[in-house]
Here is the input.
Amino acid sequence: MQADIDQLRRHARELEDEELEVLVRREALDAEVAETETAQAALVAEMETLLASIVEQEREIDAELAVEESARAALAPNLPEGILRLYEQIRAGNRGVGAARLVGMNCQACHLALPATEVDRIRHLPAEALARCEHCGAILVR
Here is the structure.
């Protein structure tokens, strides 16, 4: 009977030791969970700030777009129908850019340099003549 009692005591000590080890591991894991939750809360707060910033920037873009669309609507009736149709066709196939400024020798739509002879030819065109970029096809504004 004494042997059984000793064995039960050893078993109880082993279980207590295992329980202590589990508690120590749990404390470490609880600390890790707390750190993770804190980091998650910080990321959620940052995400909310960024989403609010995106919403604000979208509002600003929408306002700028409305101004540009109204300016375009005011100018469009003054253009010949053929030129407007050509502009829309070029714009549809050219990432939304139908016309661009010619600055020096560079087309501002594709940012490629035109040959000097082509730039010279364009500069000598009459004011009402339509010039186009030979690279991207955009209507060039001189």
